[in-house]
Amino acid sequence: MNWVRITKHWKIPAIGSIYFSTLAPKLSFDFIRKIQRNYGMKKIVILTGAGISAESGLGTFRDEGGLWAKHRIEDVATPEAFARDPALVHRFYNTRRAQAVQAQPNAAHLALARLEAGFDGDVLIITQNVDDLHDRAGSRNVVQMHGALTGALCQVCGFRWKAPMEMRPSDTCPACKKQTTRPDIVWFGEVPYGMSVIDPALASADIFASIGTSGQVYPAAAYAQHARRMGARTVELNLEPSANARDFDQRFLGPASEIVPRWVDDLLTA
Ligand SMILES: [Zn+2]
């Protein structure tokens, strides 16, 4: 680090002259430009939900006739359900994992990856989805707040590893060797992942967009209201207005694969 002496001289009537002198780091032009760019940098925070993966063929609890419709939430997606019948819960997530592997990112996932690559600012995706379609589309700044089908977790020691396609109650944890492995999914009643990243991101967002979420699952349903209070412009992209529709300044209705690429194009050409 190079240092430079800065000297200031004030003339104050009736007192005389005051000199102020100090050493300060000599900043390179590149460094100053980096600070200026970061200071003015726009931040976009995007919350995605089931609606964006539905167009890749992945269903939700609310789809009639789908995989989820055959099970009640309390039978497959709570810690109590897993304690009661781990084999059933593993079978359920094994099926979902197999479906997610077959699914391909759609135009909406690809558009968001294009936004992250081409936008002159920060783009963070917070997804409620447990598939890896954002990742496979090319997005790098992704928080999977409800966990991931690709992950396995030890209930005893907390070790995480890549889940095999088929998980069973008899699987052993690679770290502690106990038969206490579970899908790395945040079940109902558990604390979502990434809150230490999500909270400051909402507070500093210039734009908050919600894509394909019903606005019924908390805490994610409160993110739009929180981001808006902290100064973000809020945008909803959805098939129909969500339960928290009043929290949005702007709304685009339609299939995600159509409205998201258009919205991204507008942002990139603005
Ligand atoms: Zn373990």
Structure description:
GO terms for molecular function: histone deacetylase activity, NAD-dependent; NAD+ binding; protein-malonyllysine demalonylase activity; protein-succinyllysine desuccinylase activity; zinc ion binding. Belongs to the sirtuin family. Class III subfamily. The chain is α/β, with parallel strands linked by helices and 270 residues long. It has three domains: 3-36, no CATH class; 41-58 and 104-146 and 191-270, Rossmann fold; 65-102 and 152-185, SIR2/SIRT2 'Small Domain' (2-Layer Sandwich). It is 34% helix and 25% strand. It has ten helices and eleven strands. The protein has helices at residues 29-39, 50-54, 73-76, 79-84, 86-102, 107-118, 133-137, 195-204, 223-229, 256-269; strands spanning 3-12, 16-25, 42-48, 121-127, 142-144, 147-154, 160-162, 181-185, 207-211, 233-238, 250-253. Strands 5-4-3-9-10-11 form a six-stranded parallel sheet, with helices on both faces. Helix 6 (107-118) packs parallel to helix 10 (256-269). The longest helix has 17 residues, at 86-102. The model has no long low-confidence stretch (mean pLDDT 88). Zinc ion is lined by residues 154, 156-157, 159, 173, 175-176, 178. The site of zinc ion has 8 residues, from loops.
